[in-house]
Amino acid sequence: AHPLIPTVAAITAEATPRSLHFVMPLWIKAILVGAPIHFGSFGGNAMRMVYVFFAMTSGALSVSGFVIWVSKSRTARKRKKAVRGKMADALPEMEAEGSLMASSERGT
To answer: How many H helices and E strands in the chain?
Structure first.
């Protein structure tokens, strides 16, 4: 017999008080409450559709965040490369103008 269902003694026909004295631990109560929420077995098909919507939204959010991060890092890498190229192109001109002095000329 299940421990939560009162049983009837066969010989005396008295109800046994097993279920009246059984105190369910809190962790079992949490599992019994959480199982229908976890498996989506409450609320019918409308609630399942809500679950599917939130699951797809969270998946799309993480994928779009990754795509944005990759595109920004590529853009930053290209900008850095372009700045390095411009600096390399400008270096001979700056030396010719005399704006770049050797460290011995500056006194350092």
So the answer is: 4, 0
Give the integer Cα–Cα distance in Å for 57 and 64. 10
Look-up of token digits 């795509």: 67
pLDDT score for 91: 65
Q: How many CB atoms neighbour CB 40 within 10 A?
A: 16
Question: Is the pLDDT confidence value at 53 over 90?
Answer: yes
Average pLDDT over residues 31-44: 81
Tally Cβ neighbours within 10 Å of residue 43: 13
Model pTM? 0.43
Other Cβ atoms closer than 10 A to 51: 14
| Residue 16 exposure: Cα atoms within 13 Å on the Cβ side | 15
Q: What does the pLDDT average to over 57-69?
A: 96
- Within 13 A of 86's CA, how many CA atoms are on the CB side? 6
The pair of structure tokens assigned to 16 is 């046994």
Q: How far from chain centre, in Å, is Cα 51?
A: 16
Strands (E), 1-108: none
